[in-house]
Design a protein that fits this description.
The strands form six sheets. The chain has a six-stranded antiparallel sheet, sandwiched between helices. The chain has a four-stranded antiparallel sheet with strand order 9-10-11-16. A four-stranded mixed sheet has the order 19-18-17-20. Helices cover 31% and strands 26% of the residues. A hairpin with a 6-residue loop joins strand 4 and strand 5. The chain contains ten helices and 20 strands. It has three domains: 123 residues, Alpha-Beta Plaits (2-Layer Sandwich), CATH 3.30.70; 119 residues, no CATH class; 96 residues, 2-Layer Sandwich (Nucleotidyltransferase, domain 5). The two termini are 34 Å apart. With 392 residues, it is an alpha+beta fold.
Length: 392
């Protein structure tokens, strides 16, 4: 999805014309490299009017839906076809294909059977569509309006990506269409674990010498009913899965959803209540999304941070980063680190390591897309110790 958002962010900057294609019955186009047999479909004998032995099977000459290797064989077929048309495969992302011909640059991005085309000259789009049409049965959907559940609106100022319809369907499915909106997806002072949760409450304490007000942390004491395990864990997992798909265009809920997803194995009632607060936040921010403007800034900038020992169960830190191309937010992440860090500097350094690898991958993709991007890529961090270590 980072590549998809990268294409949409670069389209206004590079003045690319976008088109969308859809392959009909994509998996049926795959060729099989080995012998595969299947049982006779129910009703086949009655349709043919014959009586077959119980041991009779069918040999497949083409892939079908439900076959384990169907998706792989379809992609190999599509890849071979595009390479035959003169496209080059991007080794940084094998679903991205580029071609330069007669001074024009073409980009093809495939996601299963949905194809996104970016081209510098819109008049060449028809010729590009005719080439795969000679091999596959496809539909020309014109300029993309709805791609992978993302609503796309383009004007002279740029491209806007939202998931408004998806949010409305999610609220209706969960019966939160008429709920009261919540100002934030998750409070910053909320601490959550596998078995309990608490909030850091501020309590006023008057000092004797100066009379100023100080604060101390007082944990909340949740009731036993909120600590009970959920009887229907599928409900919680289904909700978290839908919220994870929503993070494609909503970076403001990424941290909350990532935190709630850690408790999918044994969710409790307070975990579900926290997920419901995310739904209430979405109620008040239905139309929010991403906007990619039309400017000439191609600088690559990344911001990293880490919350040391944020997980009370494993004491592991949380890595967070965001990557911008110019003023366009293209990639972000919030994930618990793989191992325990002994200091805040160590956790920050691990976060910088993760985003550095992502920035290197971005530079490779940008060069493949012929973007006028020049090094260096900038990485920002607020930890002075880590900056001194990294500068050595």
């Amino acid at each position: 999805m980072a590549t998809v958002k990268m294409i949409f962010s670069l389209a206004p900057k590079m003045q690319w014309s976008l088109h969308q294609l859809d392959i009909s019955n994509a998996f049926l186009n795959g060729d099989l490299d080995e012998e595969i047999y299947m049982k006779l479909p129910l009703g086949y004998a009655d349709l043919q009017g014959e009586v077959f032995s119980p041991n009779v099977v069918c040999r497949l000459h083409k892939s079908i839906y439900g076959l384990k290797q169907a998706s792989r064989q379809w992609f190999l077929k599509f890849k071979t076809t595009l390479v035959g048309f003169g496209f080059d495969t991007c080794h940084g992302d094998h679903t991205l294909f580029v071609k330069e011909e007669n001074g024009q640059f073409l980009v093809v991005l495939v996601y299963v059977d949905d194809i996104l085309i970016a081209i510098t000259d819109s008049t060449m789009a028809s010729a590009l569509r005719d080439q795969p049409r000679s091999v596959f049965q496809l539909r020309d959907l014109g300029p993309p309006k709805y791609f992978l559940g993302i609503e796309i609106a383009r004007n002279e100022e740029g491209i806007c990506l939202t998931q408004r319809k998806y949010v409305l369907d999610l609220l209706e499915t969960t019966c939160f269409s008429d709920c009261k909106p919540y100002p934030v997806p998750m409070k910053q002072d909320q601490q959550m674990s596998l078995t309990s949760f608490s909030r850091r409450r501020k309590k006023k304490v008057a000092t004797v010498s100066e009379g100023d007000e100080d604060y101390e942390v007082e944990p909340a004491h949740p009731s036993d009913s909120t600590l009970a395990l959920l009887t229907d864990t599928k409900q919680y997992r289904r909700l978290i899965g839908k919220l994870q798909y929503l993070t494609i265009t909503r970076p403001n809920i990424t941290f909350a959803v990532s935190k709630l997803a850690q408790y999918s194995s044994a969710p409790r009632k307070f975990h579900l209540q926290a997920a419901h607060k995310v739904l209430r936040y979405l109620k008040g921010t239905i139309g929010q999304g991403l906007f990619y403007g039309k400017d000439d800034d191609f600088s690559l900038r990344g911001f990293s941070d880490a919350d040391w020992g944020a997980c009370p169960d494993s004491r592991r830190s949380v890595t967070g980063y965001a990557i911008f191309i110019g003023q366009s937010l293209v990639s972000w992440r919030s994930k618990k680190q793989d191992m325990v860090s002994m200091s805040s500097a160590e956790s920050e350094y691990r976060a910088m390591s993760v985003i550095t690898k992502e920035l290197l991958w971005f530079t490779y993709i940008l060069k493949t897309l012929r973007v006028p991007f020049s090094l260096p890529a900038y990485l920002y961090c607020d930890n002075q110790v880590v900056l001194h270590i990294a500068s050595r």
